[in-house]
């Protein structure tokens, strides 16, 4: 196992991303899938790509999911033992639709100092080229953060992209099964296409920071910042929510299910 972890970290250092297979069990992934449907019913004004940020800290299941020890153990490999959530976001692309995500670097959008952060991309559904899986340019994490340019000529999730020319012949499709976790660097160039298949493609992005990384937003505590493991460090955090039957999604261990 130590050798496997060592190889995984080497892959991340070389390529800017790596994949951990079968991290979460099918039962919890099924609850995450139910969570997406519940959120969309509760917030009919939001698209499947818009479920995140301001919803996270008040949602007991969301906090339970991002605080799962199996995910935190992965984050600790890259960031050390003092861990906080910066942000989290479902990106759920419905069948035969769903917006593209244009080529970008996550770090270009974030108020963090220093930019020490990783994203865990948790597959809720199978993720394939047909349904719009994530694509990366291996090694591009060694580039500095690029300027952004607005893009309103094509429908896309972010409304912008990195102001660089991307050689898409170098792109790697990240094919994932439910419960797999992909980890990527804030500087890596990545994107995804629309969903051209009859199957939904849903993933949960989880942005972990070491508590030594300061969230520089004027909003303190930041709307989705949660202390998940270890010492609090540089930030102020949101309190953990209390489960209220009838108001929140019932889940295993909540008192409302199982």
Automatic annotation (TrEMBL):
Family matches, as SUPFAM superfamilies: Clavaminate synthase-like
Protein keywords: Dioxygenase, Oxidoreductase
Molecular functions (GO terms): dioxygenase activity
First and last residue of the signal peptide: none
InterPro entries: Phytyl_CoA_dOase-like
Name of this chain's protein: Phytanoyl-CoA dioxygenase family protein
Organism from which the protein derives: Nonomuraea guangzhouensis
